[in-house]
Prior knowledge:
By secondary structure, the chain is an alpha/beta fold. It is built from nine helices and five strands, in the order H-E-H-E-H-E-E-H-H-H-H-H-H-E. The chain is elongated.
Amino acid sequence: MVCWAFAAAADVAVPPLSGRVVDQTGTLSASDISALTQTLQNLETRKGSQVAVLIVPTTAPETIEQYSIRVAEAWKIGRKKIDDGALLVVAKNDRKLRIEVGYGLEGSLTDATASRIIDEIIVPKFRSGDFAGGIAAGVGRIVAVIDGEKLPAPQAPRQNSDLFSHIDSINPFVLFALIILSGILRSVLGRLIGSAATGGVVAVLAWFIAGSLAASVILGAVAFLLTMFGETIASSGGRGGWVGGGSFSGSSSSDSGGFSGGGGSFGGGGASGSW
């Protein structure tokens, strides 16, 4: 039973990949995480390569090399068959860190380069207690190295993926006009036909804006339902004391839309350090 207990507690669990930056120590502030996430998201959009940061209290009883490769294999950072992923792991209580490099980046982000980033950029800031600054500077250097690597271009985003950015740029007066139009159509044509007409107008407008049939159908259906049952929703919300408000935002400083590895592979390339 003692042996089983030791075996069960042998390895630190690999945390779920909840974003490009996973901090299990509370070292980074929300703004630090947001800024790092934005930098890494921009890299992926620009180059296709994925980089992630993980901060844990300890990797004991494993070495940081053993733990980081387990994380890399589980998260699969980088594109499949291109293997252009990199992972920065910091074990804060152990005072150790490692840059794990995918196969596809080993030509540019070599072991020697990764070692210099750790020793010359990250560690000096860590020793002065500036963990956020050290991670940001290290990530910035990793990104700069990857930017200099010739990699296959990232896949072009699907047409409907730009829908909400188009919606974000719509003049508020257009939305106001649609609300007025829906009321007029409903008054003139009746509740059902007026709602259907409103949905049709919104669908056509969405088609011209986004150029996506799927998006136009979805938004047309939403407009129909809101026109059809809007009064019911509003009245029930008023009785319950619910107040809603919001706006579309183009901000991408967090991974609220979800982030996952692309299937990249790692072979143990990279470097480790301590402070």
